[in-house]
Amino acid sequence: MLKKYSIPSLMLLIVGFIAFHPELAFAQAGSFDSKVNSITNLIVGKILPAVAVFGLVYAAILAATGDESSKRRMVLVIVASIVGILAKFIIPMFQSAI
């Protein structure tokens, strides 16, 4: 019985807090923007290329062992790598549109 009322009351508390602190709700603080940009740069600059290389190595190992689905996986990894590399150009385009 307590759980049934605790979730809506928690949601009401959160909405009430955000209503009285709109700067948190709209995330207009300068530090938030810089954190989002640094996370985006980390993902696009370091994590995506590393995952792409590991994916290509994994698909090459599967091809060397004679797996029939390795060609399809290699094509998918290459397409995902291209999209990941183009993300450096796509993300700023969307950011400037907003």
Largest sheet composition: none
Strand content: under 5%
- How many domains would you count in the coordinates? 1
The end-to-end span amounts to 44 Å
Output the helix-strand order. HHHH
Ranges where pLDDT stays below 50 over 5 or more residues in a row are none
Helix percentage: over 70%
Count of β-strands: 0
Based on CA atoms alone, the radius of gyration comes out at 22 Å
Structural class: mainly alpha
Average pLDDT rating: 77
What is the 3D form?
elongated
Number of helices: 4
Explain what this protein looks like in three dimensions.
- By secondary structure, this protein is an all-alpha fold.
- The chain has one domain (29-97).
- It is 90% helix and 0% strand.
- The protein is built from 4 helices and no strands.
- α3 (30-65) runs antiparallel to α4.
- The mean pLDDT is 77.
Offer a concise description of the structure.
90% of the residues lie in helices and 0% in strands. The chain contains 4 helices and no strands.
